[in-house]
Design goal:
Layout: H1 3-7, H2 24-35, E1 38-48, H3 53-67, E2 78-81, E3 86-92, H4 98-117, E4 121-129, E5 135-141, E6 146-150, H5 162-172
Antiparallel strand pairs: 1-3, 1-4, 2-3, 4-5, 5-6
Length: about 190
């Protein structure tokens, strides 16, 4: 970073660190002990939509790679497009198999990155629920290398439980690299698996 960057207030972007995803299983233990939220077994990787043969080939390879594991609930990798034009690769596991789900998310992110689709990667999420029927996603921001909780209000159209999110920030701060800029805690309305 040069003097001009300092004067103009530019900062060096954080390099993606996909290994941060491996902190999710220990954070899940903390989350369950403090709040009662448990994994649902669903996770997803979100990226800007990609068209073309190269991506279709990569999607087939990911399905073949993840299909080798027989401990799944549903297809290995499902491709969804949301109402905002983003694509999601969704993986489902048994709720008690969060480490395997994290391996799936890491493999999908790594494969997209290695095959030249890294700039299109946006985020990954793992879904949780509690006994009261509330849902929660722990969202990993690819370009920031940080996590944040996203808690949509049950039964409310596009409203979130910000008090719960801030409570979860305090609970998870020692286990995950939590995004300090609350303005980057984007709502993920209609995210598959949530």
């Amino acid at each position: 970073m040069g003097l001009l960057d300092i004067l103009l207030g530019r900062s060096k972007p954080v390099a993606p660190d996909l290994d941060q995803l491996f902190a999710l299983p220990s954070a899940a233990v903390t989350l369950e002990a403090a709040t009662g939220f448990t994994p649902t077994g669903a996770g997803a990787v979100c990226f800007a939509s990609v068209e073309g043969g190269a991506f279709e080939q990569l999607h087939r390879e990911l399905r073949a790679l993840l299909d080798a594991d027989t401990d799944r609930t549903g297809p290995p990798v499902e491709l969804h497009r949301d109402g905002y034009g983003y694509s999601w690769l969704v993986s489902r596991r048994s709720p008690g198999r969060l480490p395997e789900l994290v391996n799936d998310l890491h493999a999908v992110n790594s494969s997209l990155e290695v095959n030249g689709f890294g700039p299109q990667l946006l985020c990954s999420l793992a879904s949780f629920t509690d006994g009261a029927g509330r849902s929660l996603a722990l969202v990993y921001l690819y370009k920031r290398g940080t996590f944040y909780p996203f808690a949509p209000l049950p039964g409310a159209a596009e409203r979130r439980d910000t008090a719960l999110e801030l409570q979860l920030k305090a609970v998870l701060d020692g286990d995950l690299r939590v995004e300090p800029d609350l303005g980057r805690w984007f709502p993920l309305w209609g995210a598959p698996g949530l």
